Amino acid sequence: MSMKRELSRLAKRVSGRSDAKTTTEQGFPKVEGKSYVEVISEINQHRNAAWYLEIGSRTGSSLAHMSCNFIAVDPEFKIENPVMASAQMMHFFQTSSDDFFASNFLSRNEITPDVAFVDGLHFFEYALRDFMNCEAAMRKDGVIAIHDVCPFGYDMATRDISRTERSLPWTGDVWKLILVLLDLRPDLELHMLNCRKTGLALITSLDKNNRTLWDRYDEILGTYAEMDFATLTAEAYYNRFVLEDAEEFLEGFKRIGS
């Protein structure tokens, strides 16, 4: 099976779980705050964003809430939402995120996204590369949002989607990206929000010239790729950061004009 078909197959299985149940396992915090789509939309509006970049758009459910110009990337779109809102320019790239960034579309067209949302394939190495590529394309005052960083059960946090009950969402091992950023990029400002159903990380103080992740990419994969959430434990993961209330964060974000 080709890589594009495999990405498409996994995207279909993930996107089909939007109405999944949210029974929190013992030892996990309840993640029942403001919708991640609302948070990203409000940040875009507050920042008066000129360009919004989204990795993993699929049905366009989140794009439909964004009013600025946008770039959407997905290996296979199945648009089911009214994405043609008030934006003047909309670019859809039906390809992998790696191929999109390799095309240098952003730099060739002098587009610097104000806000980026990473919600692509739920494998750690993909999320890591998406973050690295987004940071390299954005200004220091940009905002990168990462979805699915707060699993509420062990099976949903595995790389093996077959272990996840059909009624549960699959966050994969995107959570490893948070550990990498906490361990290797203390210069970043990281906020972990209790956005339902599976959390949202907001990352600011970006530095496109920082080469730490690029230079240590192979080392990072060797260190983190085989980590298991059940072995790590939910307590150990959630003790690494403060899970912030999304509503309170937005109030502060708007007040200080970040």
Give keywords.
globular; alpha/beta; eight-stranded mixed beta sheet; single chain; 258 residues; 11 helices; Rossmann fold; 14% strand; 8 strands; 35% helix
In short:
With 258 residues, the protein is α/β, with parallel strands linked by helices. 35% of the residues lie in helices and 14% in strands.
* Uncertain segments: 15-19
Helix content: 25-40%
- In whole angstroms, the N-to-C terminal distance is 45 Å
CATH class, named: Alpha Beta
CATH topology: Rossmann fold
> How large, in whole angstroms, is the Cα Rg?
17 Å
Question: What is the makeup of the main sheet?
Answer: 8 strands, mixed
Query: Approximately what portion of the residues adopt beta-strand conformation?
Result: 5-15%
* The CATH architecture: 3-Layer(aba) Sandwich
Please name the fourth-level CATH homologous superfamily.
Vaccinia Virus protein VP39
**Integer average pLDDT:** 91
User: What's the β-strand tally?
Assistant: 8
For the biggest β-sheet, the strand order reads 3-2-1-4-5-7-6-8
Helix and strand element order: HHEEEHHEHEHEEHHHHEH
Structure commentary:
Strands 3-2-1-4-5-7-6-8 form an eight-stranded mixed β-sheet, sandwiched between helices. Helix 2 (36-47) packs parallel to helix 11 (246-256). By secondary structure, it is an alpha/beta fold. The radius of gyration is 17 Å and the shape is globular. It has a single domain (3-251), classed as 3-Layer(aba) Sandwich (Rossmann fold), CATH 3.40.50.150. The protein has helices spanning 3-15, 36-47, 97-102, 105-108, 124-137, 175-184, 212-215, 217-224, 229-232, 234-238, 246-256, and strands spanning 51-55, 69-73, 90-93, 115-118, 143-147, 189-193, 200-204, 243-244. The chain starts with a helix and ends with a helix.
